[in-house]
Amino acid sequence: MPNPQTQISAFISGATKSLLEEYAEAHGLKKAYLIEQALLYHFQALRELPADVIIPPRVVVARESGEELLERLSRQSPPTAAMRELFQK
Description:
The protein is mostly helical. 58% of the residues lie in helices and 0% in strands. The chain is elongated.
């Protein structure tokens, strides 16, 4: 007996919607199929992978932390010896 289907609703960014539509069109797939497959892969990964290896696609930080990160990134410091060695491998 086939699985009954149900409809869900979700708000997503315009950028994500564009990516979904472009991919679906390029590969001749239905958007609903892609969304269901993505959810199934996501839930499978959550079941099978240790929690500490799951990297969220977005990291939310407080305004102060974000400003500090931007300030640190804007400072160009010379690479350390360890960094140079790492990139030479």
